[in-house]
Design a protein that fits this description.
97 residues, single chain, rod-shaped
Length: 97
């Protein structure tokens, strides 16, 4: 009663094995290329967004510089007026003496 059931494995088709290996390799290569392209696209978008932010920042600082120059001009103008006023007051005080 010790009968063992043995089944013979079907013969291995070498061409089928190679075809399966090439197909599997092709799928992996395709996945690698797709992931690579997605990463490259994402990186390009990030660089473009960063460049746009730099442009906005440069415009903002250019405007701030213009405002600063205008404030400096006004301060110099007011200081000049104050000096003229003080000079005229000194002249008037010297004439009184």
């Amino acid at each position: 009663m010790n009968e063992y059931l043995t089944t013979a494995a079907p013969p291995v088709d070498a061409a089928g094995v190679w075809a399966a290996a090439l197909g599997t390799g092709g799928v992996f290569v395709l996945l690698i290329v797709v992931v690579w392209q997605l990463a490259a696209t994402w990186r390009a978008r990030m660089l473009a967004a960063r460049e746009q932010q730099y442009k906005q920042l440069a415009l903002k600082y250019a405007q701030l510089l213009e405002d600063n120059v205008e404030l400096h001009r006004r301060s110099v103008e007011e200081l000049t007026q104050a000096r003229h006023s003080i000079a005229s007051m000194e002249k008037m005080m010297r004439e009184i003496e």
